[in-house]
């Protein structure tokens, strides 16, 4: 199976401009770069029974809060992106505080702060939610024999609301705007009534962590990825970062290699080498060969057991970079809808695999990375066409086929089952091509179409789905690409 699409910019995303509020669809096909709310129930935490009567502000305090809300910023915190949500958060509750009771931070406030400070566990950056600052802020409000002023309390409450909403948005929608013009993405993340979710579901939840977890993508693969991020957070701190030495020739089993101690440490850290496995400090022995083969399989490399250039390059990739790759993959998951049609068809672009129902994954060919990358989108499968004709994209016609026809104008069309059409769909040529027709093809005034058949570029079947990138799934007569481990070959 191959994927066809138009050209797109390789540049990706910008900081999300604002929450996107659109009606969710019911996609049946998901093309993804790796790819709402439930009742909150769970064990009660400490402080779950504390009084939830909101702390009211004086008239003066309310005026101060209104002034800050109107400005859209508090100290370094800017919240103009979701200013209306913050305003609704307080307006609908009569401008009462959500995270303060009897002039002290509530247990729910402390629970939220704990999550903000540990945002790296979710592949996010604590600094973006004032993670390092909350310890001092809490301490300032807990000073014995000193009651915090109303101004200090309302500012604390507002800062926590802003950071909590920012965190919720990033968990649900991701940190980057996937709808940047000419981005290779066609996804529409949405979240409705952020203020209501935060005030009515998160703030009073018996288990704040569980409530926030319900905001995230519900897919098992996403959960596994979160665990991988947490694991690589630990591994990146433990690894010494030493580089394995290069080798002129691939290191084969039984060879001497100066990097054996480092290789053993790294593979043991990654879990590819079993604990206590006997290794030689100089020779490349069987336990390490097996560990290297496992590492190769995990990284899409043919498991030869040889320490070749490609394998050494992957082994020398810093774990901090692996962590960043995992975080970016979490980001892409967060762009996607939480619900798909059942059963979904999923194309994992970097894995070059298609998943449908309970069947084993199938190999696919996708667009060339950085040049003709396959866009990310979700859509319904609407049509299956057997023995489809191929309407040649103008870029391929001009850049490739015109030159081939010019070399063999007498027989190229007939040998390759092409017709030349005018704008009305009338066949202009299907055998010999005159200089005039060739010139009009080059100018884009005529079009090419390949007739259906076993040797058509689209093979014997084509799966259609609405999307802005003109992407569809199709067969192919060329099987060579499926033998490659890296299959970003289409254009």
Protein described:
It is a single chain. With 491 residues, the chain is α+β, with helices and mostly antiparallel strands. Among the domains are: 182 residues, no CATH class; 76 residues, Muramoyl-pentapeptide Carboxypeptidase, domain 1, CATH 1.10.101; 61 residues. It is 35% helix and 13% strand. A hairpin with a 5-residue loop joins strand 11 and strand 12. Helix 13 runs antiparallel to helix 15. The chain is flat. The N terminus is likely disordered.
Strand order of the largest sheet: 9-14-3-10-11-12
Distance between the termini: 14 Å
Please tally the β strands and state the result: 22
Average predicted local confidence, pLDDT: 85
């Amino acid at each position: 199976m191959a994927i066809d699409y138009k050209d797109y910019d390789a540049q990706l995303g910008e900081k999300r401009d604002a929450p996107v509020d659109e009606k969710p669809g019911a996609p049946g096909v998901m093309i993804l770069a790796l790819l709402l709310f439930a009742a909150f129930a769970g064990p009660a935490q400490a402080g779950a029974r504390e009084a939830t009567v909101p702390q009211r502000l004086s008239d003066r305090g309310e005026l101060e809060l209104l002034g800050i809300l109107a400005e859209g910023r508090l100290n370094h915190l800017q919240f103009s992106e979701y200013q209306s949500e913050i305003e609704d958060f307080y307006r609908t509750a009569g401008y009462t505080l959500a995270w303060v009771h009897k002039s002290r931070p509530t247990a729910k406030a402390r629970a939220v702060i704990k999550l903000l400070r540990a945002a790296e566990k979710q592949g996010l950056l604590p600094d973006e939610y004032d993670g390092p600052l909350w310890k001092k802020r809490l301490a300032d409000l807990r000073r014995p024999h000193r009651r915090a002023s109303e101004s200090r309390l309302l500012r604390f409450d507002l800062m926590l609301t802003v950071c909590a909403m920012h965190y919720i948005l990033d968990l649900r929608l991701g940190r980057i705007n996937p709808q940047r013009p000419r981005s290779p993405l066609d996804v529409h993340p949405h979240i409705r009534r952020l203020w209501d979710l935060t005030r009515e579901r998160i703030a009073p939840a018996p288990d704040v962590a569980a409530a926030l977890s319900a905001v995230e993508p519900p897919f098992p693969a996403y959960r596994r990825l979160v665990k991988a991020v947490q694991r690589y957070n630990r591994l990146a701190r433990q690894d010494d970062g030493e580089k394995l030495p290069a080798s002129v020739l691939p290191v084969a089993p039984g060879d001497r290699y100066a990097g054996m101690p480092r290789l053993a440490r790294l593979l043991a850290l990654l879990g590819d080498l079993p604990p206590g496995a006997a290794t030689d400090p100089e020779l490349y022995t069987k336990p390490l060969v097996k560990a290297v083969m496992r590492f190769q399989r995990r990284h899409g490399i043919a498991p030869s057991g040889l320490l070749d250039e490609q394998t050494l390059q992957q082994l020398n990739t810093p774990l901090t970079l692996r962590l960043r790759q995992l975080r970016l993959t979490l980001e892409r998951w967060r762009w996607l809808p939480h619900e798909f049609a059942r059963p979904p068809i999923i194309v994992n672009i970097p894995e070059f695999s298609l998943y449908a129902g309970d069947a084993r994954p199938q190999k696919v060919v996708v667009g060339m990375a950085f040049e003709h990358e396959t866009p990310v989108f979700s859509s319904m499968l609407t049509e299956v066409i057997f023995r489809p004709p191929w309407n040649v994209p103008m870029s391929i016609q001009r850049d490739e086929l015109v030159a081939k026809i010019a070399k063999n104008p007498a027989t190229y069309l007939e040998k390759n089952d092409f017709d030349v059409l005018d704008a009305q769909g009338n066949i202009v040529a299907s055998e010999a091509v005159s200089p005039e027709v060739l010139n009009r093809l080059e100018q884009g005034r005529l079009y090419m179409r390949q007739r259906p058949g076993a040797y058509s570029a689209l093979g014997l079947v084509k799966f259609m789905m609405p999307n802005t990138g003109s992407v569809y799934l199709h067969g192919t007569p060329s099987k060579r690409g499926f033998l490659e481990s890296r299959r970003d070959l289409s254009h």
